[in-house]
Write a sequence for this structure.
């Protein structure tokens, strides 16, 4: 039996910030109110008005791990995070609903003045800094571009400015951060949104409890 046993409330894992903020309205449409805010409360386990459902607040990249091991029955994670996670840990998760929240896109960006398209045409080897090494590796492999990947955990925008990399692969929504750092987007890789993920064993053991929640998320996300 996983730590989240049968007598425990259903546990939903999500990250604070944009995913939490954009999930709240979906929960409200399902009649679920979260009783405390993760921004003001330091609690990592948040009760809801439904005694059978609680939230846990974890780092965005850790959400799939909690759900995969069954410490949370269900979770919400960006496709970016899921894609990288699945490379090391395939299986164990269902992804039943695209919630259409936390929308952005994965793209290639360079410093203003760097002629990316010529560098690609000439067959130059490029240094790419990114948190998304799987997506980046597969993107450049599909274009036949040789790259050296440098793994970073944040502030990717800095890398081309200080000579760490020729380009970055990063998430962009408005482009404001790129502009503020004199970077330009040169290639779109894929659109990103967040998905509901469900532990496969929990779906078997507690499907009767999980299915109505999944259906409620599914209905609410249609309005997004
Ligand atoms: P941390 O900020 O704690 O280092 P993080 O960057 O992974 O972690 P968030 O910034 O909250 O956490 O991002 C969570 C998810 O939201 C990402 O995995 C992605 O799917 C989505 N996201 C990231 N940046 C944006 C953005 N600019 N606009 C919309 N959605 C985004
Ligand atoms: Mg972030």
């Amino acid at each position: 039996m996983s730590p989240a046993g049968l007598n425990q409330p259903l546990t939903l894992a999500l990250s604070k910030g944009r995913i939490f903020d954009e999930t709240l309205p979906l929960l409200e449409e399902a009649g679920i109110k979260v009783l405390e805010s993760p921004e003001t409360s330091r609690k990592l386990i948040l009760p809801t008005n439904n005694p059978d459902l609680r939230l846990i607040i974890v780092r965005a990249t850790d959400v799939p791990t909690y759900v995969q091991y069954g410490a949370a029955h269900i979770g919400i994670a960006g496709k970016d995070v899921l894609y990288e996670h699945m490379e090391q840990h395939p299986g164990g998760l269902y992804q039943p609903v695209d919630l259409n929240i936390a929308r952005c896109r994965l793209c290639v960006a360079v410093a203003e003045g760097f002629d990316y398209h010529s560098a690609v045409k000439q067959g130059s080897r490029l240094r790419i800094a990114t948190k998304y090494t799987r997506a980046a590796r597969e993107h450049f492999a599909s274009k036949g571009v040789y790259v050296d990947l440098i793994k970073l955990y944040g502030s990717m925008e800095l890398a081309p400015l200080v000579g760490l990399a020729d380009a970055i692969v990063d998430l962009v929504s408005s482009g404001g951060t790129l502009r503020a750092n004199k970077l330009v987007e040169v290639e779109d890789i894929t659109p990103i949104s967040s998905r509901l993920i469900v532990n496969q064993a929990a779906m078997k053991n507690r499907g009767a409890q999980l299915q109505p929640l999944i259906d409620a998320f599914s209905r609410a996300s249609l309005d997004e």
